[in-house]
Automatic annotation (TrEMBL):
Belongs to the peptidase M28 family. M28B subfamily. InterPro entries: PA_dom_sf, PA_domain, Peptidase_M28, Peptidase_M28B, TFR-like_dimer_dom, TFR-like_dimer_dom_sf. Keywords: Glycoprotein. Pfam families: PA (PF02225), Peptidase_M28 (PF04389), TFR_dimer (PF04253). This is Glutamate carboxypeptidase II. The keyword Glycoprotein applies. SUPFAM superfamilies: PA domain, Transferrin receptor-like dimerisation domain, Zn-dependent exopeptidases. Residues 322-509 form the Peptidase M28 domain. Residues 145-224 form the PA domain.
Length: 700
């Protein structure tokens, strides 16, 4: 009995000592992870080639084959993996037509709406598998009328048209893509009374003197396709997962949500856009509305050119497939660090999204090599390869909705990469408590375009300090994690935007010639993405710091203060709550420093429990920014600090509920509308107070 007790004590002590094994071991494995000895550019290139051999839109056989490739690759690295299917409503084109009737004597033009194959195109034999150009979830129907040029289709663009006396009502809006999300272009046009929308990729923004395959720019026939759905997840299952036999909204009910368009639309090329521009008369548009060199003069209309636009689509309940891989944590298996990237593409998807998929698989391979050398993650690492992101973040949203409670209590952070590489230049976005972690990781990884410096050095070369954007926009799969359940998150990329976005020219050839010929940028993304994940998975104390959050909130509050000058509203509760958060952030940082200074033989059970409890406070504090009622009129969005702008799903708004209420109050100017603004200020203040209480870890 005595012997077994001693043995048991030794086992427990050994386990505890392993739990807090020296940071130098972590440092060794983390340095090894980013070393040249583990990275494999050729493997990344091969993954990308294999994933992009065919167009693979969500719901297609080709995308199921791509899922099988990801699954088999993860499995080959001894990562326990499975496919999680959902059954979601997707839309596909049946027929389209566009006829322009210019002023006499010019004859009508019946546009082919075809993206052209170029000479010696290596993908010519599968080009017919690219779907006809269309907008996902576009309204089926026919629209006829004179054309009005509306620039980028923003709210402020329509205000300028009104100042000129130009009315869009009963006309067709011609917008150029850029600045805002295409779904908001259509929604804004509908709000102004337009009966249809054409969106073209302007040569000024996407074209050049030469174009692909001779240069990186969009060819004249290139078309940027994409979704015009303004929600997140399957439109027929808002708030619950799209399992095979689940409850669904009817088509009429979906339309009443306001998230799908109510007028038809089509995406068109810059060549077709310029032909249409030539048919529009009226006032000359202002300089900032004009096209580039050699473009025709842009006029606003309306008419005299008219178009007949017809789009017929079909709605199909389609099987989509998320691929999930899990490396279980050795000491805290119930705490999850999630890496996510989507797999589906509108066409070949070499940049968007499979540059990210290739990097995800590279990280998995490197972690297998670390495991062979003795590394085990402290916390569980989960690989998520999402499906149907392009239609509306569907795969990730359905998974989060299905696993909401478990994720809300167990996820440390979500790390997203959509486009891993589109060119040079590191960019990052995050919830602010991860800012310092991003910076530290960037200081450790070599700049792929200049071996004499780190990514951090190049990141600050033009600004003297790193620019970290926020995750309020709805542009990728972090949305459900941050905006719905309140999980700390980050999103990284190299290169930002690129000219052949969402066109059939986003293929392996474009990447090899212009995006990343040697795949060194891909390797760098894998290094920094994986290093951030390792720090979150292995560090005893989570590397979170909420003081940058305080600074961010203070800045946003000051900006808001400037907007409500001379208005009888008070921001006192907001500033007071931010001050309390500052005190809480300082307090928990002090607690972390105290624990870090007490490691040694006495750092056993009691302090081990303290680490766990403190980490839980750091992890759960982000959840406290959410409110169960969500934003007014947008209840799926629960986060009161970060959510998409009401008129631009890609745009990030701080205090989105306050911003929405303020816009409404300025329009209505009623007592009730201003009262609603004050109510939203109080709601945000209460949420920030909850975050402070969570960080303090004490009951009132």
């Amino acid at each position: 009995m005595f012997k077994s007790t001693i043995t048991g004590f030794i086992a427990i002590a050994t386990s505890i000592c392993f739990l807090f094994y020296s940071p130098s071991q972590n440092s060794f494995y983390h340095s090894l992870f980013i070393s040249d000895s583990l990275s494999n550019n050729d493997s990344i290139s091969n993954h990308l080639y294999m994933l992009t051999r065919r167009p693979h839109v969500a719901g297609s056989e080709a995308n199921a084959e791509a899922a099988a490739y990801v699954l088999s690759t993860l499995t080959s690295y001894n990562i326990k993996s499975h496919i999680k299917p959902y059954y979601t409503e997707l839309t596909y084109p049946v027929s389209r037509s566009l006829v322009l009737t210019p002023p006499p004597p010019e004859p009508p033009i019946n546009f082919s709406l075809q993206q052209e194959i170029y000479e010696n195109d290596p993908y010519a034999d599968v080009a017919d598998q690219v779907l006809p150009t269309f907008h996902g979830y576009a309204k089926s129907g026919t629209a006829y009328g004179p054309l009005v040029y509306v620039n980028y289709g923003r709210v402020e663009d329509y205000a300028k048209l009104k100042e000129r006396g130009v009315n869009v009502s009963s006309n067709i809006a011609l917008a150029r893509y850029g600045k805002i999300y295409r779904g908001d272009i259509v929604e804004n046009a509908y709000a102004e009374g337009a009966v249809g929308v054409l969106i073209f990729t302007d040569r000024k923004d996407y074209g050049g003197v030469k174009w692909f395959p001779d240069d990186k720019w969009m060819p004249p026939s290139g078309v940027q396709v994409g979704s015009v759905f303004n929600g997140a997840g399957d439109p027929t299952t808002p708030g619950w997962p799209s399992t095979e036999d689940c409850e669904r909204l009817s088509d009429d009910e979906v339309e009443k949500t306001g998230d799908v368009p109510l007028i038809p639309s089509l995406p068109i090329s810059w060549a077709d856009g310029e032909a249409i521009i030539k048919s529009i008369a009226g006032d000359i548009a202002s300089d900032d509305w004009q096209g580039g060199k050699d473009s025709p003069v842009y006029r606003v209309g309306p008419g005299p050119g008219t178009v007949n636009l017809t789009y017929i689509g079909k709605q199909v309940i389609s099987r989509i497939e998320n691929v999930i891989g899990i490396i279980e944590g050795a000491e805290e298996p119930d705490r999850f660090v999630i890496l996510g990237n989507h797999r589906d593409a509108w066409t070949f998807g070499a940049v968007d999204p499979n540059s990210g998929t290739a990097c995800l698989l590279e990280i998995a391979e490197r972690l297998q090599k670390l495991q062979k050398k003795g590394w085990k993650p402290r916390r569980t690492i989960i690989f998520c390869n999402w499906d149907a992101e392009e239609y509306g973040l569907i795969g990730s949203t359905e998974w989060v909705e299905e696993n909401r409670q478990m994720l809300a209590t167990k996820v440390v952070a979500y790390l997203n990469v959509d486009i891993a590489v589109a060119g040079p230049g590191f960019e990052a976005a995050a919830t602010p408590q991860l800012d310092e972690l991003l910076i530290q990781a960037a200081k450790q990884v070599e700049d792929p375009d200049n071996s004499s410096q780190t990514i951090y050095d190049s990141w600050i070369s033009s600004t003297n300090s790193p620019v970290i954007d926020r995750l309020g926009g709805g542009g990728s799969d972090y949305a459900a994690f941050v905006q719905h359940i309140g999980v700390p998150a980050a999103d990284i990329t190299f290169g930002g935007g690129y000219p052949v976005y969402h066109s059939m020219y986003d293929d392996f050839t474009w990447m090899k010639k212009f995006g990343d010929p040697m795949f060194q940028r891909h390797a760098a993304v894998a290094s920094i993405w994986g290093l951030i994940a390792l720090k979150l998975a292995d560090d005893e104390l989570l590397p979170f710091n909420y003081l940058p959050y305080v600074l961010e909130l203070q800045k946003c509050a000051e900006d808001l203060k400037g907007e409500i000058l001379n208005i009888s509203l008070t921001l006192v509760p907001l500033f007071n709550s931010i001050n309390e958060l500052k005190k809480a952030a300082i307090k928990i940082n002090d607690e972390m420093k105290a624990l870090e200074g007490r490691k040694g033989l006495t750092f056993m059970w009691k302090d081990g429990q303290k680490v766990r409890e403190l980490n839980d406070r750091l992890m759960m504090a982000e959840r406290a920014f959410t409110d169960r009622e969500g934003l007014p009129g947008r209840s799926w969005y629960k986060h009161l600090i970060y959510a998409p702008s009401k008129h631009d799903d890609y745009g990030s708004k701080s205090f989105p509920g306050i911003d929405d209420a303020l816009e409404k109050a300025k329009s209505l100017n009623t007592v009730d509308s201003w009262h609603s603004v004050q109510h939203e200020i109080w709601r945000v203040s209460r949420a920030i107070t909850q975050v402070s209480l969570c960080l303090k870890g004490e009951l009132t």
